[in-house]
Amino acid sequence: MPNNFDLKEFKLEDWMPVMPMHGPPLPRILGIFWPWYEAEVPPPYPFLKLYDLNITPKEVQIGNPVSISCTAENIGSETGSKTIELKIGGEVVATREVTLAPGDSEVVSFEVTPDVARTYSVSVDGLHGSFKATEVVPPADIRVENLEITPSEVKVGEVVTISCRATNYGNASGSRVVECLVD
Fold this sequence. Notes:
Elements: H1 12-15, E1 48-56, E2 59-61, E3 66-74, E4 80-88, E5 91-100, E6 105-112, E7 118-124, E8 127-134, E9 142-150, E10 161-168
Parallel strand pairs: 2-8
Antiparallel strand pairs: 1-3, 3-6, 4-5, 4-7, 7-8, 9-10
């Protein structure tokens, strides 16, 4: 049994049989694998392993691209090919064919452009992640208007009141520095 045995961390997949290329058809929780699985000894056939899923950026405005990549490595002893599928929300949106010699690795990249503001679930052949697309927020449009100087003529030492109105005509909140220069 694995050393990190903890009932709270069990998932259904822990009780499912492992794939034949990984080990005997026993539950994963037993931790019994073929010697070449996750070891220095390569399997006696091509075996492409995927790892390091990278999604950049994690948050983007709709209409802007998102880069999704992972590393494919052939840990087998023969040259092999694999079709790598990118799924978004469970639907295949792109594929890439990768052919690697034993011991070789390659970064496999995809690019998607979201058109709806929501969180997207991403899967690349068993690697999972997500990114969030948000609405395009128009900038604040702050205009300074209605300058008033009271009184309009003064003697040295008298008080002058200078005022104006700042109005935001945009759809987002924002700020603006208003400077008053007196010559």
